[in-house]
User: Fold these one by one.
Assistant:
Number 1:
Amino acid sequence: MLKKVEECLKQLTRGKRADLKDDICILQTCQDERMFVKASELFLQKWKPAKQSHLTEYLDYFQTQWLLKNQKQNLSFCHRRVEATNTYIDAQKEISTN
């Protein structure tokens, strides 16, 4: 997904591109469907008013291909990512207590 951001948004400044990628990464950390839906709404509210044609085109693609079409798959990915993070944190706690 982030590679597609780079391809589609070359016209944005490096800072805006980084902000957009950060926001996409935040979406990937949502822990449940309700949070994902709300975060998606906020993401679109933040970026759609920019009214830059290449950004609007990308956001339309992102919304249909990633937020709507693949929502369940993305939530599954988010759950696996959170579980992996929790496992890592637990391992670090165990190491530090020994």
Note: The mean pLDDT is 75.
Number 2:
Amino acid sequence: MLQGVIGFWNEAKGYGFVTSGIRQYFLHWSNVPKGYRPVVNYRVTFEVGPGKDGKREQAVNVRFADMTPQTPAAVVAGVEAALKNAGGTGVSS
């Protein structure tokens, strides 16, 4: 299993990328465990499998490190905390 972080995630399109070292691996929604929501900078462990297009490797058997399944409120809290740590203002007023 490799370790990495969610480097990019597009919720509307259901895909993103996991960064491990200097490599990036495609991550499709179908490879995210049920009940989890990828958020940039979340730590994950994963295996590398062939992409469906046969051209790029993708992250499979993804496991989120130190996390339990996320409720929408927990996702918002996590995003707010990440923004606060990055100097942002959060998502609620």
Note: The first strand starts at residue 2 and ends at 10.
